[in-house]
Structures are given as C-alpha cells and as structure tokens.
Amino acid sequence: MAICELYRASRSGPFVLAGPCVIENREITLETARVLAGVADRLGLPLVFKSSFDKANRTAVTSFRGPGMDEGLAILAEVKRETGLPIVTDIHSPEQAARVAEVADVLQIPAFLCRQTDLLVAAAQTGRIVNIKKGQFLAPWDMKNAVEKVRASGNEQVWLTERGSTYGYNNLVVDMRSIPEMRKFDVPVIMDATHSVQLPGGLGGASGGQREYVPVLACAAVAAGADGVFLETHPDPDAALCDGPNSLPLDKIESLLVRLKAIWELNNG
C-alpha cells in the first residue's frame, strides 16, 4: 500500500513520523530506529523513521548541523535495510530533491521554506510523498497554495504538518482548529508535537523547549482529528546535539503512542 494511503486505510491508530532531530552518528540513529520499529510492531501502528542529514536553519552558525548528505543518506539507507521502516527527511534546496528521493520515501519541506515554489516543484517531480510543514507565519488556510504547487506539478501525494504559530517573542502556540481546516484540502494532516513546544531562539544561541507539553499537544491533536503525529525522540535528549529540550525521551514513546491509539480508537470506533 502506498504510504500516502495509510491514513485512508482501516487501521488501529494514527500513523507516526518519529526519530532524532538530526543524524548525530550511525550508532544513535540505528539504536533509535530499532526501538521505534519494535514499538510500531507491538502497537500495530505504521511508522516512518525521521532524521535530518542537515539542519540548515539552526539558530547559531556554530550549531551542529549533521553529517551532510553523503554520510547521512548512507545511514538512512542502512536504517531502511535493517528495520524495513520507510524514511522521511528534510530537503532545503531544489538540487537535493532527486538525490534524496533515492533513499527517502517522504521528502519533508521545512516550515521556513513552505512557500518556496522551486523547492516544492522539485520535490513533487520526484514522485515521492511531499510532507510540507506549515510555516509559523501562515494561517492554516494559506497552506492550500503550497498543496496546489505540488499538485500542479503532477503529484497528488501531499501531507501537511502543523508545528505551531509564532506567538510573541520566542514562543509558539497551536490552534487546534488548524487540523480540521487543513484537512479540508483532502490531505493527511500531521501534528508535530515536539517542534510545537519549541521556544525558538529561547536560549540565545539555541532554541529552548518544553518537552513536558508534548503529550498534551499530541493527545489534543489526535482528538481534533489529526491523521498522524510527528515526534522527535532521542535516547538521551539532554545530551542531544539538536532540539534536545523539545525532544521526547525514547523510553517514553511507547506509553504516549498507547494513549494516542486509545484516543484515535474513540474517535474512529
């Protein structure tokens, strides 16, 4: 079954995009993927493994960005071979699309780049699923234009991801109305519950976060009709090289997904 059809199919819970924010090294990436594959299998939930080979929008020039495309794609390909999990990862320029599509099943468009026409068209032309994160500066109904850019390029496989809206300085807020609003475009809508608790630039040279609110937003989103959830996770978030303050500890993922599955079943029973 095509991944884009997962949300339409009969299933027992939301589909999940999960993994470390950035590829730190082969060992942590594979360890995390193995755990997530086991959780997905036990709960019967479709899961797409997420990690970035390059985080091009870090707060400071000295921030860790990742291993780069060559090494990063090689590690993601190994994850795919060993666990059987499909892969989602970010692209930041049109030139990256075709190369990344050789490994990734889903090409993710970062929120800051969600209006970049050339990037959306290049992603669409690979034939892969295009997951567009809603810009923190856009209303949910504004995302219709991004969806149409992909569809006009001959690709109907589009996902949209809510990740909060700018609310004053160094803060984000989530309006749960955005989920049913974006579902009006006949696309799966995903809740990024980890980036939505981010405090952008809140630590001065890096972003802060309030990971204790990740379960709150994830549960509320599934109750509001979200088709999937996006969760950044790490074996030791306090030692993570990127987005640790808003990442969920790996050993907390299964208990949260059990709760989300129960909520989903109440909505869809």
UniProtKB/TrEMBL annotation:
InterPro entries hit by this protein:
Aldolase_TIM (IPR013785), DAHP1/KDSA (IPR006218), KDO8P_synthase (IPR006269)
State the pathway, as annotated in the record. Answer: Carbohydrate biosynthesis; 3-deoxy-D-manno-octulosonate biosynthesis; 3-deoxy-D-manno-octulosonate from D-ribulose 5-phosphate: step 2/3; Bacterial outer membrane biogenesis; lipopolysaccharide biosynthesis
Task: Please state where this protein is localized.
Answer: Cytoplasm
Keywords carried by this UniProt record: Cytoplasm, Lipopolysaccharide biosynthesis, Transferase
GO CC terms of this entry: cytoplasm
Q: What is its EC number?
A: 2.5.1.55
* Gene Ontology MF terms: 3-deoxy-8-phosphooctulonate synthase activity
GO-annotated biological processes: keto-3-deoxy-D-manno-octulosonic acid biosynthetic process
* Pfam (any one): DAHP_synth_1
Reaction(s) catalysed (UniProt annotation): D-arabinose 5-phosphate + phosphoenolpyruvate + H2O = 3-deoxy-alpha-D-manno-2-octulosonate-8-phosphate + phosphate
User: Where does the DAHP synthetase I/KDSA domain start and stop, copy by copy?
Assistant: 15-258
Identify the NCBIfam families for this entry. Answer: KDO8P_synth (TIGR01362), PRK05198.1 (NF003543)
In the record, the note on similarity to other proteins reads: Belongs to the KdsA family.
The record's listing under PANTHER family reads:
PHOSPHO-2-DEHYDRO-3-DEOXYHEPTONATE ALDOLASE (PTHR21057)
**What protein name applies here?**
2-dehydro-3-deoxyphosphooctonate aldolase
Give the gene that encodes this protein: kdsA
